[in-house]
Amino acid sequence: MAPRLSPHLKNVEDEAVDKNIFRDCNKIAFYRRQKQWLSKKSAYQALLDSVTTDEDSTRFQIINEASKVTLLAEIYGIEGNIFRLKINEETPLKPRFEVPDVLTSKPSTVRLISCSGDTGNLILADGKGGLKCHITANPFKVDLVSEEEVVISINSLGQLYFEHLQILHKQRAAKENEEEASVDTSQENQEDLGLWEEKFGKFVDIKANGPSSIGLDFSLHGFEHLYGIPQHAESHQLKNTGDEDAYRLYNLDVYGYQIYDKMGIYGSVPYLLAHKLGRTIGIFWLNASETLVEINTEPAVEYTLSQMGPVAAKQKVRSRTHVHWMSESGIIDVFLLTGPTPSDVFKQYSHLTGTQAMPPLFSLGYHQCRWNYEDEQDVKAVDAGFDEHDIPYDAMWLDIEHTEGKRYFTWDKKRFPNPERMQELLRSKKRKLVVISDPHIKIDPDYSVYVKAKDQGFFVKNQEGEDFEGVCWPGLSSYLDFTNPKVREWYSSLFAFPVYQGSTDILFLWNDMNEPSVFRGPEQTMQKNAIHHGNWEHRELHNIYGFYHQMATAEGLIQRSKGKERPFVLTRSFFAGSQKYGAVWTGDNTAEWSYLKISIPMLLTLSITGISFCGADIGGFIGNPETELLVRWYQAGAYQPFFRGHATMNAKRREPWLFGKEHTRLIREAIRERYGLLPYWYSLFYHAHVASQPVMRPLWVEFPDELKTFDMEDEYMLGSALLVHPVTEPKATTVDVFLPGSNEVWYDYKTFAHWEGGCTVKIPVALDTIPVFQRGGSVVPIKTTVGKSTGWMTESSYGLRVALSTKGSSVGELYLDDGHSFQYLHQKQFLHRKFSFCSSVLINSSADQRGHYPSKCVVEQILVLGLRKEPSFVTTHSSDGKDQPVAFTYCAKTSSLSLEKLSLNIATDWEVRII
Ligand code: NOJ
């Protein structure tokens, strides 16, 4: 297909990335200022005679010898072994921005008890006394101590930095008896420091509030492995940052982003985890302005008593990693998650920001997207193509061209004259439609969404107080101010069925361009001095704009169903807590092998920072994947949480059946494998939803005592049962798979071959091989037949794959509900079953007595792997006391037992006895 031109742009891809349009550290003024100031080493001191304590927190003043401006520090103990440190100006000229709406509720505090201390020290302990905060007055430092071991030191490098708000010096000069400012006013003329004005190319950022940046260092003792702070197209383990090479957190639309690069792309979660043998911790820096993070690991050295203080003296030889956070604005508000296990840290983080929303079942199936499916006929033909080739799929997607001139909530009448009819077609196959809705609104007096938003003052404003205007897909547009709760409420109401003409209950949403993307804007985004609700500058909250967009969309979908149905919303931009509203994808990747490879660490990083529902465009958005790459990408994507094929408008068509019979078969097989495993996926999402554990897990999370796993990113665990090592190299004939755990046994998912853990095995791979291994000790529920879509499979039978551990036992779970409503929550309409195999008996029992859901589904097949001896009999034993013999097949070569044609109701208690 020839490249299509957008009516408003010469060629949409002319707007594409050129790295020069983005800033690196040395072009960021607050970075330069902090570096320059820190080289002067001017220390802060805590005034411990100012300490006050109340139910919630302990407060004291901090003062810097140069600026003499008083800061106020507050330390909170939070339930679940979390500490919070807030630092703000004691009396700022005007309030500084504090990020709202991210914490799910006001964190419940535990009273900290002041144990001892004199004017030079203060020790605060939580009730149990296991965790303590040692505060040293001069220079100001905080050590977090667990069981007499210093885990984290704050400001031990003296990088606390706080630019207090000032009056612009011209105004100040006019005032008599002005006070001295912390930053030398003579420097204000030095453009280089960008205090009141910062230039980048043709853009000038005028800063009405002047410099307001903050910074702080954290030393993580004994830690060399750090992860998190998405989103970067980088390795899973964070790298040491050299000069001017900090990880940047600034949400940007970076078309075809460069890989192995620390530049900020679409979303930000200012949260990192650190892991060492015996402990995992987290640091959550709650700030939504532009943020930079430097990381610097020092190898193990011997510390002297004076360097570390008396408590630390016990552990003299340790490596440590310094983490330096710097943000352009706001306050210091940081949560220290003390673990000690990876699972504890996941729980602590979700206690603050919420867990992954429980997705509707359909959204775990395969999604078919492209920019664009041309018209209703095209949709019909592609939909039929899936049936013709016997490939399941769940959702057809329509990109921006489905609208009337990129006016969201409308339909191009020529291409989509009857959207309801099109949705009825999809509904008849139990499939869904997903359409796009971006945050920019075309300036057009005849477009009702625009007119209503304008009339109500719902757009972001410019410096002059007028609606901000910028160019995006529709041409000149204004941008909805989702930070305003009224705007969100109104936007949500646009999804009501009578309002959104042509929409039905099978239509779901895709939020794109919500960094926000502003063509020809500075770094392709909004000016930092644009004004939001509450008179806050865009700079204060840039990174949370997309979060609010998705929040309002998800709320709209819930409301249109009168609170009954779970929403599905995919977003490109995100922030900490976005997991509560839906799914995230990795944006405009490229059809190259290296992008397939990097999708794994990118998704692992999102997963451990709370966002379990994530994926990358299958095939690569930009360009045309060679056939082998496309097949490998489908195979990898089938084992990643959000599974969508997508391509840009000038890429060749790439529906799964366009690459010859054999490749169609391979893609079909990969997608069908996904559908077979849906009961396991759905159960994992439930676990993420209620117990905060990521669906896709780096190896170190499951094997925290195994050093070798700490930097692995070419393979990962899906839940705790499956290890996946996708093929990401062309023409591969083998892959080296590390099977962790010295007491583990692993079974090849297809051949049933088994290996003991703790070794690397060379696995031969053909083009149809997806290297997946089941961990001994697990039971994985599957569906035995695959239908057109998840909806077709509701009644189909289950199978259980029981992989025995070295001790001959296994456990697993199945979660089941109606797949779409909130009844699981409000009426406890769900089934949560537990399968355990021990002493040759497999038991199906209830894992949660609160749940009830009628299901006629049966377990039809049971496969037991690792059974060393052929049984003489197999019987089933149901709760009504009936015993029945069962026919079985045993294969001595693979030590596997197969039971077929069973009819054991999934919802009732029963046993299978192997004698
Ligand atoms: C950018 C998105 O990343 C891409 O997925 C989409 O197709 C285009 N915008 C057009 O909407």
Q: Which ligands appear in the coordinates?
A: 1-deoxynojirimycin
Task: Give the class-level CATH name of the domain at 361-438 and 485-516 and 542-695.
Answer: Alpha Beta
Number of helices: 16
Distance between the termini: 63 Å
Q: For the CA atoms, what is the radius of gyration?
A: 28 Å
In CATH terms, what is the architecture of the domain at 361-438 and 485-516 and 542-695? Alpha-Beta Barrel
Decide which structural class fits the backbone: alpha+beta
Mean of all residue-level pLDDT scores: 93
Number of strands: 54
Spans of 5+ residues with little confidence (pLDDT < 50)? 1-16, 176-185
Percent in strands: 25-35%
Task: Give the CATH superfamily of the domain at 361-438 and 485-516 and 542-695.
Answer: Glycosidases
- The shape, in one word, is globular
CATH topology of the domain at 361-438 and 485-516 and 542-695: TIM Barrel
- Assign a percent range to the helix content: 10-25%
- Main sheet? 12 strands, mixed
